[in-house]
What we know:
Layout: H1 2-12, H2 19-34, H3 41-52, H4 56-72, H5 74-84, H6 86-104, H7 110-139, H8 144-186, H9 189-195, H10 214-222, H11 230-249, H12 251-256, H13 258-274, H14 276-287, H15 292-317, H16 326-340, H17 342-346, H18 350-378, H19 384-413, H20 417-450, H21 458-461, H22 470-474
Helix pairs in contact: 2-7, 2-8, 2-9, 3-4, 3-8, 3-14, 4-7, 4-19, 5-6, 5-7, 5-19, 6-7, 6-8, 6-9, 7-8, 8-15, 8-18, 13-19, 13-20, 14-15, 14-20, 15-18, 16-18, 16-20, 19-20
Amino acid sequence: MSRGGAAGRGTAKPQDQGWAWMVLLAAVVLQALTLGFPCCIGVFFTDLQHEFQASNSETSWFPSIMVAVLHGGGPLCSLLVKRFGCRFAVMLGGLLSGLGMVSSSFCKSISQLYLTAGLITGLGSCFSFQAGVTVLGYYFVRWQTLANAVASTGVSLGFTLWPLLSQYLLDEMGWRNTFLIFGGILLNCCVCGAIMRPLGSLPQPPKPGEEPGSRAEDAQLSNGASPPHTALQQDSRRTKCFQVLQKYLAFDIFCQNKGYQIYTIGVTWMMMGFALPHVYLVPYAIHNGVEERRAALLISVIGFINIFIRPCTGLLSGHRVFTGRRIYLFSLAVLLCGLSNFICVISAEFSVLIFYCVILSIAMSGVGALTFQVLMDVVEMDRFSSALGLFTILESITLLLGPPLTGLLVDITSDFRYVFYTSSFFLISAALFMGVSFCALEKKNKLREASKVPLNNPSRYQYSETPSDPQAESQPPPAVVYITSI
Length: 486
């Protein structure tokens, strides 16, 4: 106990001060490099179509795979973080991202891009991004909401700079050389990972229920010896496999925590339409006669406005007035995203599209600043990494399917307006589902309290936020996630 206490006191020092702000700066750059990068793919959409003679649906699989793997690799990232630490996960992600884009510059078919830029770069971005998000929950306690909002401005920076850089490089040297340069840029994730030094390490005690001879049995197995009671050991392995899946995919939280269940389903449904404007806005503008440089500027306008709005959204949502109501702010932002898409349907003139980008950017600021903060509100922090893994792998399924299916609809109808109709349907329905469901859940919890029906663990079975106890804030976060070997 004394060792744990000493280590705990050691890990409390960096919180909300000192090196924590350097980690936050690294997280901003990481999100600009990883989450901001897929937004520029629309700039290459037309060129890739012509290069590989591909349809809208076939071409859209490339960014869809990248974004889906970026979000869906969460469980594997959780394993890396728990075993090797955040620094290792971020740096490995940077290497994979760079390798994927360098390989993409030599691709001879669109299917090869699915593997290199889609799978390899997407997986590398996943490791860097999700490890960077998780570490903020341990470096910041009092200023956690602000830290998440500030970190999310990195996405805005990426949205602003990546399309402009992409269009410039594309005009100057073509898409192959541009992808080669992108590989070098993404290697900077390794620098960000080097900044995220471990908070400390603790000796790992034997797991509960582990028998003294189990380690010897493992050693015997590794040496190729055949232990007795093979059937019993196979059952034990199945049990351990189930426990690992439950630990890293948080199925137990999904089944027991109604708030997490509603939020995960709502965001998963939302993602079916959330990425559509990012993929198709530039092709839509070019299709309607907008110059390529001006079309690429549209994405940059979204990112530029996000830079200023996201921190304000984070500060606003962190105010005591919104304690227990962040999910409603999030639902309102999703609803505004869905409604804004109807502006594109009215007209495809450049001035109208600029106005659309302004409204969409304001709404996206709320979504981006609150997505992970609401998740931290509905689950315990010591299970956040696992909850994030299941959360992202479910939403990755809809992120993967949304753009290609919508692209198929565009190929059939030759009308890009269906992109925005589809996006609005999923966003509006998801916003209404989350808002109404959490409202009903809150009323149900109030009725339980009024009838004095006790809950075994209220923090796990209901959505609630209470003002933090200053003494609790000074305590160190659970050390189990960030026990590192580095």
